[in-house]
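ARCHIVE CARD
Drawer: 12
Card no.: 0347
Subject: one protein chain, sequence and derived structure
Cross-reference: see card 0346
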Amino acid sequence: MSENTQPVSSLEKTISLKLSVDKINSEVEKRLKSVARTARMPGFRPGKVPMKMVVQNYGPQIHSEVLNDEIGRTFSEEVTKQELRVAGTPRIEKAKDASDDAFEFDAIFEVFPEIKFGDFGALEVEKTICNVSDAEVDKTIEILRKQRASFAEVDRGSQEEDKVTLDFLGKIDDVAFPGGTAEDFSFVIGKGQMLPEFEAASKGMKVGEKKTFPLAFPEDYHGKDVAGKTAQFEITIKKVEAPKLPELNEEFAKTMGIAEGTIEKLREDVRTNLAREVGNRVKAQTKQSVMDALVKVAEFEVPKALVSSETTELSARAREDLRARGMQGVENIQLPEDLFTAQAERRVRLGLIVSELVKVQNLQAKPEQVRAFIEEQAQSYENPAEVLQWYFQDRSRLAEVEAVVLEDNVVEWTLSNTKVVEKSLAFDELMGNK
């Protein structure tokens, strides 16, 4: 049985649980008898271990299991009866006053807040717009040509986008250092393969020319032995090659996977891919604006338990990111919780708002929406049918798509019920090229 529910704060509650000692002991005895039928101990045949020894070896563990099961069952029955929505895991504390015929505990927990929405019509949302013009198609095709450029030797000083082959020798305090020497080393000027000072020194030099110049390694340079130090480099140019772009013809179109081999079909394919990428980025920016607006439409207290759980998750992700970047000893790094608290609270708040909005406005992901989303994504793959099969044969993958579609539904509903201001972005700005 359970006793009164005592509010501690607007979201925190305490339920006092009273469990019958006789009932607990009866269940413990029942489980011990079941264990005794198969118990194994040295010197005894299976199932023939004396009950006293079974109790001695298994009694405390089984008693703890039965008590925990009964606490969970009683708590679940009580919150169901009182129609409480528990947020997070309850904290169970033994009551100070207990009787001989009952175990008494306090279950302390938070409930989900009641969310009341404000005036959506007063919200302002930015809807990003970006068009793909012929200029973007031309620029992209030019990039594709540069990526497939061949190089031919030239008799002149090196310049941007040339490939140079050289020997170099680096010294710090007149002593050569590991990794600072190479012969017949090649790189393309302007691609960021070398530090800026090295590229700048190589530019304008002809075959056979030598140059000595200082190079200051950044403090965060990956080579710890030279990070933050200044070296003297001597370089000798051995070859200068200029890029030669492939002609824009049917042969080039075929190398790009265009079976028809026409430039018109190539341009159409490039435009389709650009439009897909632009669409994704525009959608992401608009979604961000929607979420920023939704945070403002409802004021409510956020359960601390959910924020704590989200903080732990964000901290774990940060560690995994550092580990993926090659950082050693990540498990020993102390990441203060307050680094993630604000982000965690925002994510929890948004999650609660979106969840309530979906329920109130019936914005759940419909099967036909899920299928349409997958089919659209599959078009960028060589075999769309295989992509569809890959998604539909795994329920967890479908669940991920459903979550995306659900958020899309929330975004569309919000755009239809708020003041929308169109924000036009140039292609390069949207793509981060400026």
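Annotation on reverse: Residues 106 and 229 are 62 Å apart (CA to CA). The first helix runs from residue 21 to 36.
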